[in-house]
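We append the chain.
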Amino acid sequence: MLVASALVLSLSAETSDAQRWNTRDRCYPAVEGIGRATGAFGLGTSRARAAARADWENAAARSYGPSASRLRFAQNIQWDCKRLAVLRAKCVVVAKPCGARIRG
C-alpha cells in the first residue's frame, strides 16, 4: 500500500511539474525573421537560415521580452528559403513566440 501511494504521489508531482512548464497559453502574435547569406553547396542556405533564426529571436525579444525569444518554444513555425542567385540565399521564418516560464 505504501509503494502504491508513493507511486501515485510521484506521478501527480510529474503532472504538476509538466503543467507548470506550459508554453502554449502564453503565445503572442507572429513575428518574422529574415536572413540573407552567401555560400556554395547549401552553405548559403544554412547561413541564411541561422541568420533568420537570430533575427526572429531578436525581434521576439524586442517585442515580447526575453522569455518569448526562443524559436524552439514558438508555435506555427513556417520557413521559406530560396536561392536568390548562384551563391546567395534568403530565408524567412514566421512564428508565434511563446513564453517558457515556470508557474506556481
Summary: The helical segments are 2-20, 43-64.
